[in-house]
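Possible regression after last week's pipeline update?

I re-ran a chain I had predicted before the update to compare outputs. Posting the input and the new output here so someone can diff against the archived version. Not blocking, just want to make sure nothing changed silently.
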Amino acid sequence: MKHQERIAFSSPRSVVVAATAWAEEAATEAAAAAPKLDTGDTAWMLTSSALVLMMTIPGLALFYGGLVRTKNVLSTLMHSFFCAMLISVTWVLYGYSHAFGPDVSGIIGDSSHFGMAGILGTTNALAPTIPQMLFVAYQATFAIITPALISGTFAERMKFSAFVLFMLLWSTLLYNPLAHWVWGGGWIASQVGALDFAGGTVVHISSGVSALVTALYLGKRLGYPEQSMGRTTYPSR
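New output (post-update):
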């Protein structure tokens, strides 16, 4: 009550001075809480994101396209290109949130970042010197190339509609939880203490094992080994 009376009967100038002091204090606290971004780190991560994306398109697309028969080159190229389109959408909607959102029982992240909610103007604890939106884009390139790597195991042997469903389910049910376990603070990171800097577990082991299982399930190509499965050759003129 005495404090209120002192404010009520103080001069207008003292009120202005007090308000200014409070505003400066609040601005100082906000500046201290704001993320400290590094321009060098940001520039390098932008470059790295572009390089990893180029590993899929055109890198992986051309690599797998060069290993199939001429009539299947276009469909094989589409595997990598469509992965980039499909996973980009699912990653923004829910993939990033499930992989790097706040932990839920060590299994998966919650949905607090669904549709990129609460991302702008923040940083991720794993990369505190770059904008979190850039971290989202960088991680999206790995989410894209991992299922695209599997596509080489069923080249020429799966319908495109089945491929779309396979990629959607695999990235949602396998990649997102595994990325959270290892990179997002899940049970492998917190209990086992695994360090995966190059994606050996999240990208290569997961895609390699999945590719092997898929190849064994689909079996040999129709016509093999009676028909030649190499690239079509044309007689010279």
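Follow-up from reviewer: compared with the archived run. The beta strands are 103-104, 108-109. Marking as no regression found.
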